[in-house]
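Quick note —
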Amino acid sequence: MKPYELIATAAFGLESQVAYELKQLGYDDQMVEQGRVRFRGSPLDIARVNLWLRVADRVQLVVGDFPAPDFDSLYDGVKALPWSELITRDAAIPVDGKSIKSRLTSVPAVQGVVKKAIVDALGAQYGLAVLPETGARHRVQIALREDRALVTLDTSGDGLHKRGYRDLVGAAPLKETLAAGLVSLTRWKMDRPFLDPFCGSGTIPIEAALEALKRAPGFHRHFDAESFHFVPATAWQTARAEARDVALKHKDLVIQGSDQDPSAIALAQRHARRAGVADAVNFEVNPFGGLTLTEERGIVLTNPPYAARIGDAHEVEALYRAMGQKLRGFPQWGVYVLCGYDGFERLYGKVADKRRKLFNGQLRCDLHQYYAARPPRPPSSTTG
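Predicted structure written out below.
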């Protein structure tokens, strides 16, 4: 069978991390673009990547990619695509759209033309004047950029950030996919401690534990492609069996999350239980002032309060100063801080080794990366 062209979509700034995890899963033939990574795969691969991708937002199947400077070319191009190979006669076919720097600027009109072209093509194929659309959802997306149309079929359904463990959220929750991307960016060595001192509802430590224990993040959820006729049930059975076989029941880990809010810690503990990692993560009520770092080396990764998110400006500025005063005293710890406050480094008291622009929802943030200092080399011995 000819492999499908697939796309793993990515939040801005995390494309390289999605490419990295695809490579770790064995997909070397890939193309990184803004907001997505293209690669190829079989129906079994569709199941595998949906189960395993931690950082990607969703997995799409490319149906067509062609010039569309006007509505006629858009309609003709969409209608000519092999829809009957992908969509059954009773499928529900919602159409989403977006247009960037294209002459066709009205997204509702674009969606309408695409839907008509698909319905006309399938109606002719199945001999139906009207499609019932009573069956499984097959969501189509039309993305216009500079007068070129990219038509895709969404295989994921709900976004991949919906792992299923987070049924309740606290203030300003961090998406699971973003949290997993942050963990990946630290290149955490799992034999070292991992700490989030502002853990809120626990997403960052939980995602660290899921990765360390080799748990497929999508193992317990449903995907739209489970209802696609060209992705057989055996593909999902095989992919889930593979995930079950490699998952670790236990591993010696030091993963800690703390927060001054007892209700947030209770929520974090609930989410850890639902994620199946309660034994791997230690959550405790502890304000930042009570933080102690007892190990020689480790990783701090955190998303502290900032005024635009939940806090008072004077309070959070004092907090950033306190963070710098404490954490700068542990140079062999890597410190990674996601923050949407422009003056963070000035208050922290040190310029970051690297900054990466990211978005927490619609809020533009920077990941301030302070790399761990190399441990001093032991003195060399000489022989006489």
